[in-house]
């Protein structure tokens, strides 16, 4: 018997027993990656594909990849269900080509050197060890979709930034030279997301932003798809950037007045580009990149407002007829 597979099948049965809301969410998220893939061709369908999916459960993105590429094999990391994470809905036949690891990615040993006096920290599992080494594990597609979950336990406000930084450390280290990174971000006009976009644009040969009309249309969220990672104009800085991110992870986890972590500021990312240079160097490029994101959000907000207005009129009419 395989305890890990037993756990997965138990979770899958529990997922199947849930009400329709989780299944609708699963189908919607598969549609999200389908939209991204149709816009960017980020999931090859014929050649062998190794992929890493951070924040993978309930498993919609992984299912989309494995369904569309029978030669794909992947590894995923997801918050344990007992800590508020999603159950896995990945079908049994796909699990033959996929390894699911339950962990909180923000509490892997991600600093420049191991930290011995924090029992919350875990060593990287074998599929994530030696990332970035010449003989280490590398992935041609990296999906970064971790986010705070409503039921997540032991969450503090600045963990949002720890999630972002942890994913960047793992994702940039895991991506094969010339590989693809797909990362969810929000509000491209703000300083911190803009600096991350600048980073991805300079490390890669091509950067595309896409806001799926499904599930994300009226929100600030969107996906950045970076292709040719490590081969961009500043690809040679990749190792240096990861080192700076590791130091920042330590500061966000143990800094602050009480030594329990702190918020991230735009200035923390000055090793990518200084805040005072961001507008002059990247504003025009950012506007071109984000134009379709804002257009999709505008249409989504219009539909939302129209729907709310229709609902309000219908409720007022029903109330007047009742009176």
Automatic annotation (TrEMBL):
<dbReference type="InterPro" id="IPR029063">
    <property type="entry name" value="SAM-dependent_MTases_sf"/>
</dbReference>
<feature type="domain" description="Ribosomal RNA methyltransferase FtsJ">
    <location>
        <begin position="33"/>
        <end position="226"/>
    </location>
</feature>
<dbReference type="Pfam" id="PF01728">
    <property type="entry name" value="FtsJ"/>
</dbReference>
<protein>
    <recommendedName>
        <fullName>Ribosomal RNA methyltransferase FtsJ domain-containing protein</fullName>
    </recommendedName>
</protein>
<dbReference type="GO" id="GO:0032259">
    <property type="term" value="P:methylation"/>
</dbReference>
<dbReference type="InterPro" id="IPR002877">
    <property type="entry name" value="RNA_MeTrfase_FtsJ_dom"/>
</dbReference>
<dbReference type="GO" id="GO:0008168">
    <property type="term" value="F:methyltransferase activity"/>
</dbReference>
């Amino acid at each position: 018997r395989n305890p890990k597979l037993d756990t997965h099948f138990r979770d899958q049965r529990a997922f199947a027993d849930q009400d329709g809301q989780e299944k609708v969410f699963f189908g919607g998220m598969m549609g999200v990656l389908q939209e991204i893939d149709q816009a960017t061709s980020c999931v090859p369908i014929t050649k062998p594909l190794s992929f890493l999916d951070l924040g993978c459960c309930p498993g919609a993105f992984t299912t989309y990849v494995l369904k569309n590429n029978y030669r794909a094999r992947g590894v995923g990391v997801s918050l344990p269900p007992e800590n508020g994470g999603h159950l896995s809905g990945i079908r049994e036949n796909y699990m033959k080509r996929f390894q699911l690891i339950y962990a909180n990615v923000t509490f892997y040993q991600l600093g420049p050197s191991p930290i011995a006096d924090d029992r919350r920290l875990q060593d990287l599992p074998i599929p994530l060890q030696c990332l970035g080494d010449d003989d280490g594990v590398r992935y041609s597609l990296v999906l970064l979709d971790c986010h705070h979950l409503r039921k997540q336990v032991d969450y503090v406000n600045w963990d949002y930034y720890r999630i972002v930084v942890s994913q960047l450390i793992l994702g940039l280290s895991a991506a094969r030279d010339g590989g693809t990174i797909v990362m969810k971000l929000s509000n491209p006009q703000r300083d911190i997301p803009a600096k991350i976009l600048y980073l991805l644009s300079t490390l890669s040969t091509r950067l595309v932003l896409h806001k799926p009309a499904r599930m994300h249309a009226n929100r600030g969220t969107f996906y950045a798809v970076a292709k040719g990672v490590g081969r961009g104009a500043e690809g040679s800085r990749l190792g240096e950037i990861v080192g700076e991110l590791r130091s920042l992870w330590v500061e966000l986890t143990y800094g602050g007045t009480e030594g329990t972590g702190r918020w991230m500021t735009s200035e923390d990312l000055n090793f990518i580009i200084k805040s005072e240079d961001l507008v002059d160097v990247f504003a025009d490029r950012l506007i071109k990149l984000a134009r379709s994101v804002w257009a999709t959000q505008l249409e989504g907000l219009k539909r939302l407002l129209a729907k709310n207005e229709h609902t309000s009129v219908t409720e007022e009419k029903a109330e007047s007829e009742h009176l």
